[in-house]
Amino acid sequence: MYSVIEKVIFLQDIDVFKEVRIEDLTHLAVIAEEVRFLSGATLYETNDSADSLFLVIQGKIRLHRDDQEIGVVGNREAMGTWALFDNQPRVATATALEETEVLRITKEDFYDLLSDHVRIAEAVLRSLSRRLRSLTELVKPGL
To answer: What's the topology of domain 4-133?
Structure first.
């Protein structure tokens, strides 16, 4: 089991939480639940309710639709970020490629936290906006 301090140190390296203050990361660390998955285990399937964000501490997770691979998420990467803000079902299946350890933050716990800590929402939204902006810069005009 990780201490709150260890979780804070981990969270500050995750892109979506880069702009969250250290004292606010402490609140996130408290609600972040440690979960382990064996190799081959399914974290969630396409069309499942999107109810949690997953942060990979150690391991690899394959995102796919049927046999089509969408990507692989590894150490210190987040997946399911939009699940905290969107009510749409999952668009892919997530399968552990090896024994994998994650921190899971549920939408319910996240919203409960935001009701008392608005700065966290502001920082996360800034990070997501930055991420979207960088994606749109990749698209060249006229394509």
So the answer is: Jelly Rolls (2.60.120)
